[in-house]
Amino acid sequence: MLSVACSRCLWRTVGLHKRPVLIAKPGKDRGLHVSSVRNTIMPAWVIDKYGTNDVLRFNENTLFPVIHYPNEVIIQVHAASVNPIDVHMRNGYGAASLNMTRDPLKMKIPGSEFPIILGRDVSGVVMECGLSVKYFKPGDKVWAAVPPWKQGTFAEFVVASANEVSLMPKSLSHTEAASLPYVALTAWAGLVNSCGLKKETCPGKRVLIIGASGGVGTAAIQLLKAWGAHVTVVCSGGAQTLMNDLGADDVIDYTTASLKDQLKTRDLFDVMFDNVGGTSEELALQYLKPWSGASYCTLVTPFLYNTDRMGIADGMMRSGFTLGSKVIKHLCKGIHYRWGFFTNSGPALDEIGEIVDAGKMRPVVEKVFPFSDVPQAFDKLEAGNARGKTVIQVIDLKQ
């Protein structure tokens, strides 16, 4: 007999073929009986070109999302959150690669991707399911991180693949839940997928997190502590209390003295997880345990920058050369060098949800904005010095 976990994975993998499915579409009254998408609209924040916050536009007549594939669900968005990727996408960063992923046939047509709805995180309620969706049903409270090449969550409704969605932790409100999926999955991608850490092998590992006070950093701390690692974090002094509250074993304030000098007084690390880029990769050669399987992973990579500047083919070639040279350089010193990329995963969110409900991970919400103030939320994030997440409350209810 299949276990519950195995059954979930099976249900998540069905219906991945590309044949369209026709279902009843919600009408203006949000019932499930109007079949014409032309008669359905919703409010959303969109951009019609790339630029600063001035390009954000509130559109009450955005077309309602449509289920195209049998493994998709429509989610009524209760809350979303703003991530750095949203600011970068608003500016046009990664447009070349993302447009190819959206629709390769249109990638050479200027402006064919617009209007774009930004927003990656969603916490909400399932409204409708495709024919192959068995693990979810209408009315389920769910959370998810929608990948950047899909229309986002700064809207009343969003379509997501069932493979990207997970049942929301019972211990969280929608506002709290919306703060976690994208950053938790990004931390998961770096620590688990790139560095090979997992619950069974993590106890006793020494991990250094550079840039720990933002959304990804706060999620990484809690994930690692839930798995028994020793966590050292690098941040400014103003974040020290938060870092201690989240369970960090050692806090380094980079503003008080040279980071290199402070690291010299610590034991060597098994894993270095970088959220800021710059010269941090040079630290790996000095402060990771050589020839012991130690890994350095950075989330700040030149891949999208290269494809934007040089085109897809040349950009990928340049990125591959850069990565290869860094891998060899570090491997010669006995260190594994990795790039980390966000990976959407409902099964990973299932595990993260269990950690949350066990009381070993909590959302870190710095500020909540109403749906009408999305541009102000962008301003808040761009101001820097984040101490957690900026959340958008789409539905104005006590959650």
Automatic annotation (TrEMBL):
All copies of domain Enoyl reductase (ER), residue ranges: 51-392
Transport is among the record's keywords: no
Principal subcellular localisation of the protein: mitochondrion
A Pfam entry, by short name: ADH_N
Keywords, alphabetical: Mitochondrion, Oxidoreductase, Transit peptide
Localization of this protein: Mitochondrion
Homology family: Belongs to the zinc-containing alcohol dehydrogenase family. Quinone oxidoreductase subfamily.
Protein name: Enoyl reductase (ER) domain-containing protein
